[in-house]
Design brief:
mainly alpha; two-stranded antiparallel sheet; 14 helices; 2 strands; globular; binds Phenylacetyl coenzyme A
Length: 316
C-alpha cells in the first residue's frame, strides 16, 4: 500500500522538492508545463548562442591585430560550444536536436533580439563583449541555480567563459577610449547603438512578462526581468564613466534614496518589432543559418553513414 507521501498530489510534492532546493533531474517526474517551459527557454537560449556567433564572426577576418583576431576567434568558438551544451541540456527533456533546429530554421522558434543588430565597426565588437556578454552574465549567473540540474550545470561553465568575454570586450573599448579622437568617437557610436538593445535583452517589463511569475515559482528564474536589468544598469553606468563615454539616455540619473541608477523609458515597440522579425538584420541572420545548415548536410550524412556502419544508429 502506498504511504501517505506517495498518495499526495505529485504537483505539490514537486513544488516542495523545488523549495528544498533539490535539483530536478531528467528521469524525475515533473509537471508537463515545467518541461515545456524549460524546452522553450533552453532551446531559445541555444539558438541565441548559435545565431550570436554571426555579428562577431563578421569581424574575424578584419580584426585589427593578430592578438585581437585570436581572442575573437576563441570567443566565437566558445559561443558555438555554449550552443552545444544547451542543445544537449534541452535533449534531456525528450526533444531532439534536429527538431529544435528545424524550429529555428523555419522561423517558429525565437532567439535573442540582440543578435539582429549590425556590427559596422570594430568598436561594435568591443561593445558586444562589454554590454551583450555583460548583460548575458547578469541574466545567466542566477541560472546556475536553476532547479533543473542539466541546465544549471551547463550554465556554470558558460558563465565562466562569458565573464572572460566581457573582459575582453571591455578591454577593446578601453583601448579605443584611450586612443585617438576618431577611435573615441567610434567607441561612443557603438555604445549609442548597443545600449538600448542590451537593456531589451532582459525581456519585457515585469508587468508584461507572461512567463516570469511561474518560472520564478519553479525556480527556473531566480530574479525578474526588471530586477536583472536594474543590476546591469547599476554595474555598467560606472564602467561607462571609467571609459569616458556617455550613456545615450538624457533621463538617466542616480537616485540617492535607493542607491540605484534610474533609466529613461524603454521603447518597447522596438523589442516587439525585432522579435516579430523586423529588426535590422533578422533576414540576414536567418539566411546565414539556413545556408550553414545546408552546407553542413554532407557532414551530418557522413557522420550518420559512419555510425550506421559501426552499428550505432543515430537519430535523423
Ligand atoms: N529577445 O515572459 P517573458 C547571449 C520573449 S545569450 C527575443 O519575460 P521568459 C550570449 C520570450 O522568449 C542571450 N525574445 O519570457 C552571447 C517570450 O516568448 P515565448 C540569450 C524575447 O522566458 C553573448 C516572450 O518574449 N539569453 O547573449 C526576449 O520568462 C554574445 C515573453 O517574455 C537567454 O536566452 C528577447 N530579448 O524570459 C552569445 C537566457 N525577451 O517563448 C553570443 C535564458 C523575451 O513565449 C555573443 N533566457 N522574449 O514565445 C531567459 O533568461 C529568459 O528566457 C528571458 C525571457 C529573460 C530571455
Amino acid at each position: 500500500m502506498p504511504d501517505a507521501t506517495e498518495e499526495r498530489d505529485p504537483h505539490v510534492r514537486f513544488l516542495e522538492r523545488v523549495d528544498r532546493e533539490e535539483k530536478v533531474e531528467p528521469r524525475d517526474w515533473m509537471p508537463e508545463d515545467y518541461r515545456r517551459t524549460l524546452v522553450r527557454q533552453i532551446s531559445q537560449h541555444a539558438h541565441s548562442e548559435v545565431v550570436g556567433m554571426l555579428p562577431e564572426g563578421n569581424w574575424i577576418t578584419r580584426a585589427p591585430t593578430l592578438r585581437r583576431k585570436v581572442g575573437l576567434l576563441a570567443k566565437v568558438q566558445d559561443e558555438a560550444g555554449h550552443g552545444l551544451y544547451l542543445y544537449s541540456a534541452a535533449e534531456t527533456l525528450g526533444v531532439s536536436r534536429a527538431e529544435l533546429l528545424s524550429q529555428l530554421l523555419s522561423g517558429t522558434a525565437k532567439y535573442s533580439s540582440i543578435f539582429n543588430y549590425p556590427t559596422p565597426t570594430w568598436a561594435d565588437i568591443g561593445a558586444i563583449g562589454w554590454l551583450v556578454d555583460g548583460a548575458a552574465i547578469m541574466n545567466q549567473v542566477p541560472l546556475c541555480r536553476c532547479s533543473y540540474g542539466p541546465y544549471a550545470r551547463a550554465m556554470v561553465r558558460i558563465c565562466k567563459e562569458e565573464s572572460f568575454h566581457q573582459r575582453q570586450g571591455f578591454e577593446i573599448m578601453l583601448a579605443l577610449c584611450r586612443g585617438t579622437a576618431a577611435q573615441q568617437q567610434m567607441a561612443q557610436a557603438a555604445l549609442d547603438r548597443w545600449w538600448w538593445p542590451a537593456l531589451m535583452m532582459f525581456g519585457p517589463s515585469d508587468r508584461a512578462s507572461e512567463h516570469s511569475a511561474r518560472s520564478m515559482r519553479w525556480k527556473i528564474k531566480r530574479f525578474s526581468n526588471d530586477e536583472l536589468r536594474q543590476r546591469f544598469v547599476d554595474a555598467t553606468v560606472p564602467q561607462a564613466a571609467h571609459l569616458g563615454l556617455t550613456i545615450p539616455d538624457p533621463d538617466l540619473r542616480f537616485d540617492e534614496a535607493t542607491g540605484h541608477h534610474v533609466i529613461g523609458a524603454i521603447d518597447w515597440s522596438e523589442l516587439e518589432r525585432v522579435i516579430a522579425g523586423e529588426g535590422p538584420c533578422n533576414q540576414e541572420r536567418m539566411h546565414a543559418r539556413r545556408e550553414a545548415h545546408e552546407q553542413g548536410r554532407w557532414v551530418r550524412e557522413a557522420a550518420r553513414a559512419h555510425a550506421d556502419k559501426r552499428g550505432h544508429r543515430t537519430k535523423p
